[in-house]
Design brief:
One of its GO terms (biological process) is microtubule cytoskeleton organization. It is found in: Cytoplasm, Cytoskeleton, Cilium basal body. Residues 125-134 have a biased composition (Low complexity). The protein has 18 helices and 21 strands. The chain is of the alpha+beta class. Among the domains are: 4-59, no CATH class; 104-192, no CATH class; 432-587, no CATH class. The strands form 5 sheets. Strands 9, 10, 11, 12, 13, 14, 15 and 16 form an 8-stranded antiparallel β-sheet that branches. The chain has a 4-stranded parallel β-sheet with strand order 2-1-3-4, covered by helices on one side. Strands 5-8-6-7 form a 4-stranded antiparallel β-sheet, with helices on both faces. β13 and β14 (331-337) form a beta hairpin. α9 (271-282) packs across α10 (284-305), α9 crosses α18 (532-559) and α14 packs across α17.
């Protein structure tokens, strides 16, 4: 008997993933509580499932939502929980500014008076800045720009911009429409990010995929797959353009109706290419810092709801985070989607979402499901998983673990670190014992790198590596560890050595790249160093990675044409070369 699934959504990227695993469709015959192992349900079904006090799910059953997932995915509740968490941090002696992850936001109608006060303050501040700069808003009393959104709607429905308090008088307590007085649909009003980072002059936001398998303890995976959603029209902060939704709102449901909408790429750009573009335009360190900050935004938002969301062991969640980046490279959380769209408009979109779902299933698949699944249908990264390490997988396809607060994982990491420290101590002992022969050892390591690698960067001994093959080869590592242990034993019985100078091998790898269109190329460099015998290998790896990165970086030149619609995707080639040196380090 195989894994049984039922699904409320008629989405090919879901159903094809279930069928490729050899799982059995029981959607038609299974009831809500029995006869299935995985239920990919809509939010209405989840609400009904957990509302039934008689429902008792079996230990092996999984559903794709937590009971009160809306605490994070309803815009008004997300704001409430983040503000509550800020107050908690302040009470605990922390800095509430560390939770500065959303624009200034109020929930209407209940926060109307607070919003009106902040609106006037921001407008006065902006007018003073304009006077000092010798400019004018030109809006007849217009102030700062704010964006209004209904709390529980999606696809850009009901969103509009305002810059005058009179434009939302109907949302005040005294003039509230009957539908809103009953609490049917609150609105959130947020300070508009009017200095967005632009690419090709156009505004964009990022869709980031996140999987949460537990809130207590918190366990979170983030995918490197995702995409940027672009507006059709180049951005302008002019008051006269406030109603131009093709300039201000990135939702595909809106942009697809624009005259400039490109059906070939759907106004989307893969997240990996966006990162390469940012590395090229802002630098590698700035791009790395941005994506680290995005991870921080995600974790802070989840911790804000951690004590509110019911942590049902049968539940997991695939979230779609919408992030906008301003021109200082600060990420802002716009909203979190509990059911990110699985509709596809292009072939690239289909491939990306199919992979995201496949990786999500790999994350949430319990070990006991593997025994009842056709081995040939299992994804490659699940066929040889060590059962003991199964709960601690840090990389699952495109997803990487960004948080695991479980005690078991902390013990697992502590054991890993202890083993690494022991290996490092053995290597250092071996290095100290044979420091006089360090140049020869480095040459031998370089030769090993040459034997294991293929092209890319040369070590100081003349070896080469294509980006880490030698460094991560299990056989080579085992041999090195054995040699280090033997050397350490010899060092223990030898007389204390006199002070010596340790040697460090450095290798510098650089590379060039050119797009298939022959437009601007770029170079990337990488340098690696290490102690003695390990140094040449580290240098060789660094040299190779420098050349490989150069080819990747250069793809941006073709991808940059994306916004003009002249190419459907990136293309590029790259190669790298290197030079190395052996130099003394400080005396021991």
């Amino acid at each position: 008997m195989g894994v049984r699934w039922k699904c409320d959504l008629d989405k090919p990227v879901l159903i094809s993933n279930f069928r490729r695993r050899g799982w059995i469709d029981v959607t038609a015959e299974a009831d809500d509580t029995d006869g299935w192992d995985l239920w990919w349900a809509n939010v209405q079904s989840i609400k009904a499932l957990f509302a039934d006090v008689l429902t008792r799910l079996q230990p092996h059953q999984r559903v794709n939502h937590f009971p009160n997932h809306y605490e994070l995915t309803r815009k008004d509740l997300m704001v409430k929980n983040i503000k509550r968490y800020q107050k908690q941090i302040k009470r605990d002696g922390g800095n509430p500014d560390d939770l500065d992850i959303i624009p200034t936001t109020f929930v209407l109608p209940q926060d109307y008076m607070l919003f009106a006060e902040e609106f006037r303050r921001c407008s006065q501040q902006q007018q003073q800045q304009q006077q000092q700069a010798g400019t004018t808003g030109g809006g007849g009393g217009a102030g700062a720009t704010w964006i209004m959104k209904p709390s529980s709607r999606s696809q850009g429905k009901g969103i509009f911009l305002i810059n005058k308090l009179s434009q939302i008088k109907q949302w005040s307590v005294n003039s509230l429409p009957p539908a809103l007085r009953s609490g049917a649909d609150n609105y959130v009003v947020s300070r508009y990010i009017d200095n967005p980072l632009l690419i090709g002059g156009k505004k964009f936001d990022m869709r980031i995929y996140v999987v949460v398998t537990s809130f207590k303890p918190l366990k979170v995976y983030m995918s490197r797959l995702g995409f940027g959603r672009f507006c059709n029209v180049k951005y302008s902060a002019e008051v006269g353009e406030m109603r131009n939704e093709f300039m201000h709102l990135t939702n595909v449901a809106i942009q697809q109706h624009g005259e400039d909408y490109n059906e070939q790429h759907g106004n989307k750009w893969p997240l990996e290419l966006m990162r390469l573009y940012l590395e090229g335009s802002r630098g590698v360190e700035a791009a790395d810092r941005l994506f680290a900050d995005i991870e921080g935004v995600i974790l802070k938002s989840l911790r804000a709801c951690q004590n509110i969301i019911v942590n049902d062991r049968h539940s997991f969640e695939l979230y779609g985070y919408d992030i906008i980046v301003d021109d200082t490279l600060k990420p802002w959380l716009i909203e979190v989607n509990a059911s990110p769209s699985l509709s596809t408009t292009t072939q690239a979109d289909r491939l990306l979402k199919h992979r995201v779902i496949s990786d999500t299933l790999n994350i949430i698949t319990p070990p006991d499901w593997l025994a009842i699944t056709d081995p040939a249908a299992l994804p490659p990264d699940l066929r040889d998983v060590d059962p003991a390490a199964y709960p601690f997988r840090e990389q699952v396809g495109s997803f990487h673990l960004i948080c695991d607060e479980s005690e078991d994982y902390q013990r697992y990491k502590a054991a890993q670190q202890a083993r690494a420290a022991m290996a490092a101590s053995a290597m250092m002992a071996a290095t100290a014992a044979g420091a006089a022969a360090a140049p020869a050892a480095a040459a031998a390591a370089g030769a090993a790198a040459s034997a294991s690698g293929s092209g890319g960067g040369a070590s100081s001994a003349g070896g080469s590596s294509s980006g880490g093959v030698a460094a991560y080869d299990g056989t080579a590592f085992a041999a090195a560890a054995a040699a280090a242990a033997a050397a350490a034993a010899a060092a223990a019985s030898a007389p204390p050595p006199r002070p010596v100078r340790l040697y460090s091998a450095q290798s510098h790898g650089s590379g060039w790249g050119r797009s298939s269109l022959g437009i601007p190329s770029g170079a990337r460099n990488s340098t690696g160093s290490g102690y003695a015998a390990a140094a040449a290998t580290a240098g060789a790896v660094a040299g190779g990675s420098g050349g490989a990165a150069a080819g990747n970086w250069s793809r941006e030149s073709a991808a940059a044409r994306f916004l003009k619609g002249t190419v459907s995707g990136p293309a590029g080639v790259g190669s790298g070369g290197a030079g190395g040196s052996l130099r003394p380090r400080s005396a021991v």
